[in-house]
Specification:
The chain contains 46 helices and 16 strands. With 1040 residues, it is α+β, with helices and mostly antiparallel strands. Among the domains are: 195 residues, Alpha Horseshoe (Leucine-rich Repeat Variant), CATH 1.25.10; 135 residues; 119 residues, Immunoglobulin-like; 112 residues, TATA-Binding Protein (2-Layer Sandwich), CATH 3.30.310.10. Pfam families: Adaptin_N, AP3B1_C, AP3B1_C_2, SEEEED.
């Protein structure tokens, strides 16, 4: 291996080495000229030798150090050749770290990465999902056009992967491939369409991000997935939520009508409907039709509301902008409290939130008025935050709170932050403009500020006063005189120019002061700022036209000075004014109108919020923050006049649900058939995430579901076994079940009669007799129904059958296992679980229920069990063939397997009309048992017999709170189907069961010791099963 490393060493050693920050024990003396560089090379050599070592521990240590360097921002690119050779390592930990490194540097070292591309392709088939995902990330990071077909193929395969994490990375790779080769857009859209149908919350956010990057205009891809995305939104990771909410906001603006005139339209419609003439009635009804919100529109608003409590500021901001843009105005107020809560975050978050609040507060002041004090400025706020808070306070100002705000502003003016003080003065000016009742008060306050020591405050006051005086100049001659005196002390050019402009505009009202001001300005003309010089020229021209006797010579003197000024704007203005106001032979017709031109009535300036023109950008976007359209910004469309067809969002499962509803009402005709055929499909579909779309289909549908849940809750007082049914929504089935309980004898006769026509559902008919067995109780009691006793008569119990009886299993959450994934089954998905019921097909068989789902858009026919590959002695009772399964439909069937008291796998083929799929079922050891009830005396007697080789034990260490009776009971019954045995000692907990096949006893004892230890003892003839059960119980009891 060392010989292979020479070329890499020469390549990396030829240039200047980069310090990697690793403390290496160098033996090279630093006295040489290149001592430092030699030391750096030594550090690299150390890592390279570790990477080329035969020991995995050395390689792993080297990779950890390298990844640590990357995390600290160090450059580790020159180690790429040594690292990439380990991409084929068999050690999974090394391989993970190698891929972390490659994702970081594959784009920089494309040539070297291409050499290992075959390894990356092989890794796409790796059993470990992290490796498959990492290989895809590295492959998409090699930005070379020549491998685009390979990337395309890898993305297609990854999009159908069983792991949602790999599918998530496939969605990320779509964006990278699109930026590399936009010509692949159509093929990528097909993959996006496929991934949009994915029901995993891990994938949803990433695929919507890919949709936004590649084809944001293809709204048709969202129709069928709209309700699913709305219902999955709460469970998606935070940054996925942000992307989905922004996309759904755009979608809602194209698919629903505006909810913003709801109140007016309802009132107007009522009046016009009754008062209009007959010939105008139809026209009026069309124009004033009452607004009814689309159920899908309401679904989006309702499902995003909980996210206002998110800890992620971006999510809260996304929900706020959604409510602002698409919800009725009466409901948008709930976002204000959440946005104010974000003001406690860091200054960057505050800045963005305040910008959006500033935009909102212009149009809807009432939303934020209750939180007025939240926008008061704090001394620790940075200037950018202070300015935004001032903006919001100005927008919220009204007659009721203006006195409070003005007192607050007086404090702000005294701030040491001069920029903030100047902004406050501008704010006072805007308040004076907007609220006429306080205009005089504000003006007097600003005049007082003219005597302030701070020049910036005085200058800003002058500018604001100038704007206010334009509104009513005739009433404020004294203020103009006072400002004229300030010319001797104010040096800020903008303030001096403002005073000169005011005096020029009002020169006829101050005839004695204006000429004197012009005389002073003529003296200092050459030293003034260009802005002031222009206003001096204007003042001279106005006085020449109104008071030429006193100012004629002064004006000519100023014009002569301006004629030779260095600034060409001033020279041009001087020549223009001379030709206009001083008549001569060359003067044109404009000279006659010089007075009207210079002294025309000018409109008062309109003081507006700088955020007024930002509302056309979507809130929370970069474009809104910058007030300019950024690259990639997608504009919100206007509301449509007429809503597009809402049926495009319907999926097949909703249509099926609508067909089932009338069938449930007609239960008197064929109640047994509906209960045993359709309710199973309904039960399974309720577990899938796609069925959540049907919940939101209409308001009536929700009421129907709540009604069914109410029925099931009432029934739970009679028989709590209906809890499982209430979860799956069996409405009509529950009524049949209550009837069956009240007439058990008639029911038994009926089920025997119905078995012949309903051969496909034999197992479900018989299982209904066992409902009392599944009663969830805290501590099981030996209660059996008569029908179950009849079925258990032939069971072979152990020699102690006189003291042992099968008891009711304790209620535990159902654990579902995947039998056939929908990807592997070409749309047919199968899951199974152990109901912990005695099997009706044989007293030695374990009962198994299988739920079959058709996730395709076509009918699947002839579903049956094909070839069976069972170990010697194992037997299987299969379910009857299913003729057909409708699209998006599901059905639950029962089967029994005799596992011969072993955990061996039962392998068989699940077949359809066209395909056969190999599947297998491996039972957990705890499902090979049936709970039994016995007394403590009988337990000790049997335990005394099963000692020596028949006893296994282990010591458990756990926290004391994990050794309470209820916790121990729940943990044990979750693992194994056992029954609790009464115990006279608080520190000893006993459980008993028997194996399904042979009836051998399984006795479990948990004896609590001093401190935080306990001893777990298992006594059984089946030592193999006993040891396996011990291994499964020990970690469960130990953990918290």
């Amino acid at each position: 291996m060392s010989s292979n490393s020479f070329p890499y060493n020469e390549q990396s050693g030829g240039g200047e080495a980069t310090e990697l920050g690793q403390e290496a024990t160098s033996t090279i003396s630093p006295s040489g000229a290149f001592g430092l560089f030699s030391s750096d090379l030594k550090k690299n050599e150390d890592l390279k030798q570790m990477l080329e070592s035969n020991k995995d521990s050395a390689k792993l240590d080297a990779m950890k150090r390298i990844v640590g360097m990357i995390a600290k921002g160090k450059n580790a690119s020159e180690l790429f050749p040594a690292v990439v050779k380990n991409v084929a390592s068999k050690n999974i930990e090394i391989k993970k770290l190698v891929y972390v490194y490659l994702v970081r540097y594959a784009e920089e070292q494309q040539d070297l990465a291409l050499l290992s591309i075959s390894t990356f392709q092989r890794a796409l088939k790796d059993p470990n999902q992290l490796i498959r995902a990492s290989a895809l990330r590295v492959l998409s990071s090699i930005r070379v056009p020549i491998i685009v077909p390979i990337m395309m193929l890898a993305i297609k395969e990854a999009s159908a992967d069983l792991s949602p994490y790999v599918r998530k990375n496939a969605a990320h790779a779509i964006q990278k491939l699109y930026s590399l080769d936009p010509e692949q857009k159509e093929m990528l859209i097909e993959v996006i369409e496929k991934l949009l149908k994915d029901k995993s919350t891990l994938v949803a956010g990433s695929v919507v991000m890919a949709f936004e990057e590649v084809c944001p205009d293809r709204i048709d891809l969202i129709h069928k997935n709209y309700r699913k995305l709305c219902n999955l939104l709460v469970d998606v990771e935070e940054w996925g939520q942000v992307v989905i909410i922004h996309m759904l906001t755009r979608y809602a603006r194209t698919q629903f009508v505006s909810p913003w005139k709801e109140g007016d339209e309802l009132e107007d419609n009522g009046k016009n409907f009754y008062e209009s003439d007959d010939d105008q009635k139809e026209k009026t009804d069309k124009r004033k039709k009452p607004y009814t919100m689309d159920p899908d529109h309401r679904l989006l608003i309702r499902n995003t509301k909980p996210l206002l409590q998110s800890r992620n500021a971006a999510v809260v901001m996304a929900v706020a902008q959604l409510y602002w843009h698409i919800s009725p105005k009466s409901e948008a107020g709930i976002i204000s409290k959440s946005l104010v809560r974000l003001l406690r975050s860091n200054r960057e978050v505050q800045y963005i939130v305040l910008q959006n609040i500033a935009t909102m507060s212009i149009q809807r002041k009432g939303m934020f008025e209750p939180y007025l004090k939240s926008f008061y400025v704090r001394s620790t706020d940075p200037t950018m935050i202070k300015t935004l808070k001032l903006e919001i306070l100005t927008n919220l100002a009204n007659e009721a709170n203006i006195s409070t705000l003005l007192r607050e502003f007086q404090t702000y003016v005294k701030s040491q932050d001069k920029q903030f003080a100047a902004a406050t003065i501008q704010t006072i000016g805007r308040c004076a403009t907007n609220i006429l009742e306080v205009t005089d008060t504000c003006l007097n306050g600003l005049v007082c500020l003219l005597s302030n020591r701070d020049e910036i405050v005085v200058a800003e006051s002058v500018v604001v006063i100038k704007k206010l005086l334009q509104m009513q100049p005739a009433q404020h001659g004294e203020i103009i005189k006072h400002m004229a005196k300030l010319l001797d002390s104010i040096t800020v050019p903008v303030a001096r120019a403002s005073i000169l402009w005011l005096i020029g505009e009002n020169c006829e009202r101050v005839p004695k002061i204006a000429p004197d001001v012009l005389r002073k300005m003529a003296k200092s003309f050459t030293s003034e700022d260009d802005l002031v010089k222009l206003q001096i020229l204007n003042l001279g021209a106005k006085l020449y036209l109104t008071n030429s006797k006193q100012t004629k010579l002064l004006t000519q003197y100023i014009l002569n000075l301006g004629k030779y000024d260095q600034n060409y704007d001033i020279r041009d203005r001087t020549r223009f004014i001379r030709q206009l106001i001083v008549p001569n032979e060359k003067s044109g017709a404009l000279s006659k109108y010089a007075k009207k031109i210079f002294l025309a009535q000018k409109p008062a300036p309109l003081l507006e919020s700088p955020f007024k023109d930002r509302d056309h950008f979507q809130l929370g976007t970069l474009s809104h923050t910058l007030n300019i359209k950024a690259t990639g910004y997608l504009e919100l469309s206007n509301w449509p006049e007429v809503a597009p067809d809402p049926s495009v969002r319907n999926v097949e499962v909703i249509e099926l649900a609508k067909e089932w509803t009338p069938a449930g009402k007609a239960k008197q005709e064929n109640s047994a058939k509906k209960f045993y055929s359709e309710s199973e499909e309904e039960e399974d579909s309720s577990d899938s995430s796609s069925d959540s779309e049907s919940e939101s289909g209409s308001e009536s549908g929700e009421q129907g579901e709540s009604g069914e849940e109410g029925d099931s809750n009432e029934d739970s007082s009679e028989d709590s076994s209906s809890e499982q049914d209430s979860e799956s929504g069996r409405g009509s089935g529950l009524e049949n079940k209550r009837t069956a309980k009240r007439n058990s004898k008639e029911k038994e006769k009926k089920t025997k009669q119905d078995r012949t026509p309903l051969t496909k559902d034999v197992s479900l008919l018989d299982l209904d007799d066992f409902n009392p067995v599944s009663t969830p109780v805290a501590l099981p009691t030996p209660a059996l129904s008569p029908s179950l006793m009849a079925d258990l008569e032939g069971l072979n119990l152990s020699t102690s059958s006189s003291v042992i009886s099968v008891s009711t299993p304790a209620f535990v959450p159902t654990k579902t296992h995947v039998l056939l994934h929908r990807m592997s089954g070409k749309g047919l998905a199968a899951h199974y679980f152990f109901p912990r019921q005695p099997c009706i097909f044989g007293d030695k068989m374990v009962s198994i229920q299988i739920t079959l789902n058709n996730t395709t858009d076509r009918k699947i026919e002839n579903i049956h069990i094909g070839e069976k590959k069972l170990p010697i002695g194992m037997k299987m009772h299969v379910f009857n063939p299913i003729d057909s399964l409708e699209p998006e439909g599901s059905i639950t069937v029962s089967m029994g397997i005799d596992f011969c008291d072993s955990t061996q796998t039962a392998s068989f083929q699940l077949c359809t009309k066209d395909d056969c799929f190999s599947v297998n079922i491996q039972p957990p050891v705890g499902e090979l048992l049936l709970p039994v009830a016995m007394s403590e005396k009988d337990f000790k007697k049997e335990q005394g017999v099963l000692t020596g080789m028949n006893e296994t034990s282990a010591v458990i260490i756990a926290a004391p709170q994990n050794f309470t009776p209820s916790v121990i009971f729940q943990k044990v019954v979750n693992v194994a189907n056992v029954g609790a045995v009464p115990s006279g000692q608080d520190n000893i907990h006993r459980f008993a069961a028997k194996t399904v096949h042979s009836g051998s006893l399984m006795l479990v004892t948990v004896e609590l010791k001093e401190g935080s230890t306990a001893q777990l003892i298992i006594n059984t003839e089946k030592t193999v099963i006993g040891s396996v059960l011990l291994r499964e119980l020990k970690p469960v009891l130990s953990q918290g």
